[in-house]
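Course assignment 3, question 2. Fill in each field.
Student: A.L.
Task: Predict the tertiary structure for the chain below.
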Amino acid sequence: MDAGIACLRSTAGLLERAGVLDDTLLVFTAARSGDGETWFDRVTRVPLLFQWPRRIAARELDLLASAVDVMPTILGLCRVPAPDGGQGLDLSPWLLDGGGARPESVYAEGQLGSREAWRMVVRGLDKLVFTAGLEILHLYNLGQDPGETTDLAREPAEERKRDELRAIAADWMRRLADEMDPSGLKRR
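Answer field:
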């Protein structure tokens, strides 16, 4: 994250010297590391920074966000409507004044087209990793176990959490048409 902030500051310095910084929206994020497509936080949790001196006050927000949220957020900041059928949430209200609908969960998928394909949903500090058939692979509590070393997927005490996260995952899959049609039925 420090390297990202340094890069953002360097770019901002160049734009300031050119006299266009106040009217320029800068967005900085990072690609996944060389670990391959994995669901571990060390790979999926990447910085997402927005800077626009004329419109956005500098502050850190503790929000769940996904790469698909970048486009609708940029459009929202520019006061341009997002196209119909697009994915992602417009987080511009959070950037502008700290308000708006708070994302309750994020969804990701990886290794698509392979036998090792996975999906994950994160709600709060809980992360569920599962297959396209909603078979649970892993469950972690990122607050108690940020290194994801204790898999809670088979713990009887976590049954309710597994069921709640599986329902959220099924909703994401339906909305994104990920192996399901909009009715919620599995595609063949």
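Instructor remarks: The chain has two domains: 2-97, 105-175. The two ends are 42 Å apart (CA to CA).
Grade: pending
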